[in-house]
Structures are given as structure tokens and as C-alpha cells.
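Hello again, I could really use a second opinion on something today. Take your time with it, there's no hurry, and the full record follows here:

___
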Amino acid sequence: MKAPWRVLLLAWMVSAIATLGALFIGEVMLMTPCTLCWYQRILMFPMAIILGMGSFSDDRRSAVYAMPFAVVGSGFAAYHCLLVANLVPKTWVPCSAGISCANQELAILGGVQIPWLSLSAFLTILVLLIHYLKKSSK
């Protein structure tokens, strides 16, 4: 892409789609999020606003501000994926009451579970932000 702001726009689109998907699952499908899903929402929702404002004004600082959200969100999503795949002991589950983080019942797009979609969204945004920051520094 010749114009670096298009990369930032693409990162915003990924965060907006992830945000709308999370809102759809919670508000329309009435599925209560688990503790780890709440943390991932807390990190994804601000990126939709920050990257939206930054992509429409071509503000490089928005990528810098969104980067910590993408890094920490990737960590939470990766831990959630390991938990769902039974690669983390069940004693390390952060939720003690309510919806269990280890039991993911919802799978879309042919069996892909929500934590894997979340991890792919955070990592995609992270890669796009790194690419944008490299291209816009010249």
C-alpha cells in the first residue's frame, strides 16, 4: 500500500469488526462473557475508537496509543486459547464463579472458537500497527 494511513484504516476495520462481533454475541445472542472475555473486550473496545479517530485524521500517535492494547490483548487471548485447548491447568482458571473461561460453547466459521478469533484479531492489529509505524516514520 502506498498510503500508510490505509494500513491504519485496515487495523481500525479489524478492531471495529471484533467490537461489533463481541457486542452482537453479548447483546443479541445474550451470551454472558467469561472473565477473560471481559478483559479482552476492555482492551479491544478502546482500540476501535482510538484507531478510528487516528485513521480518519492520519494521526501516527493513534497507532502508538493502540499498541499497548494490542500487545496486552494478545497475551490475554493467547492465555485463553491455551486454557480452552487444555494446555493450561484448570487450577489456573481466573474465573471462580459464573461463566467458566475453560468451557467455550460458541464456535463459528466452521468450528473456530471465540478465543481463537480474538487472538487472530489482536495479532492482526498488532502486525498492522507495526507495519504502519515503520512506513509512517519515513
